[in-house]
Amino acid sequence: MKDVKLIxxxxxxFHRDNTRIWLEPTVLEAAGFSVGEGxxxxxxxxxxxxxxxxxxxxxxxxxxxxxxxxxxxxYESCSKEVTMVFREREYIDLLxxxxxxVMKKERSFDLFVIEKPMLRGGDLKKLRLNSFPCGGGFATAxxxxxxxxxxxxxxxxWPTAVDAYMNNFRNGSFYLGDLTRKHTDYVAKSDxxxxxxxxxxxxxxxxxxxxxxxxxxxxxxxxxxxxGCDAIMIxxxxxxxxxxxxxxxxxxxxxxxxxxxxxxxNAYDLGSVASRTRGYAVFFREKTDFExxxxxxxxxxxRKTVAQVIGKDWEEGDWRPxxxxxxxxxxRKSGNNNFLAEKNHVLVGLDSKRVSAFPFSYGKxxxxxxxxxxxxxxxxxxxxxxxxxxxxxxxEWYDFPEWMGEGxxxxxxxxxxxxxxxxxxxxxxxxxxxxxxxRSMAGVAPAGSTFPATPTPALPIIDENGQGAFEFExxxxx
Length: 478
Known about the structure:
By secondary structure, the protein is of the alpha+beta class.
């Protein structure tokens, strides 16, 4: 029996009259395969199985990109053998473990399947956490850093985000693919679900349709319900809480999670140097004594400066002149609007006590972001990714893969969170959930709703091991 570390959802290709399967570095590294290693490809029960072997009839190829520090593994298979199992341009699921990858046809799902949750963690160990989607795992890291949460499942569609997440979290199962295609049988049982929906449709810098045509709400709802969780935490730009997508999600969840709390918090108000205003919501199955984190009144003299956050190596970086560059144009912008350099703290010094948020498009140099001004010269530079992590209070132990370039690191951080807010939010949720269980253990019946249970069909090839992870059934490869 082997734990399934990664679940990848892909579409097959077509080349020279045969079905083509292309496995990316993220998948192969999750399985522990390295460049030049021998593998065996076999067929069993309608699945294609890739496993490690000493023979080198088939080998793991190599791939290199300018942004990578070294070569990474690549595997391609295009033959009559593959065509016998899968059609071209057909969706399939990859189940990945140490030294083995099982490829099976995509599993269809019932949109309305709901499983009755069982009381887990009766011994009050860490709360098991699912993240949909998880991005680079920054929120997961902040919650895990409280020692109250243990990651058991995650989902994202961006391979780069998956690489960063799996570099920090080795346990549990990961689904790399479209949220709307994930089968509920692949959802690990958890106590808490973290949702951080895509913000492009709700941000003032992105689209403005408010999720009218998105349709993600029902999918978030079914995944959370199938996890059997007791609480659901949501973080997104404030506009999301007024969107059609959130209204759909709330409507579907409230029969099972009737106790809902919503608020808006700016990380700056909690003492962060980086300003980041976000909407937060939490759904509970049972009535709890939940309270939002207390917002302190921090005196100006106690606030940290940019220099205190980024440290002594502030001189390192790509310094550019202000005159004649894009920065000169941003500083000269005029007009009665919210996109002025002065209002948005575009150029900040070492003694500054506030910087703007770092968006996904930070590298484009824009008036809504902050950049560092040299204390003595008319020069400026972008903040480095390690500095941005400190601004957003991400735990020091969080680390990017060594091969990942600065551009991808910055983009991931642009989809990040306000670490101090997430930590304080998570602690309050953990206390509320634990409080309900303590009362239950003490014989005080919790208030809540009941709903019908629907049996879950057996899952071929893999099963859940009861600890928030999946395991392969015994597979014999001849």
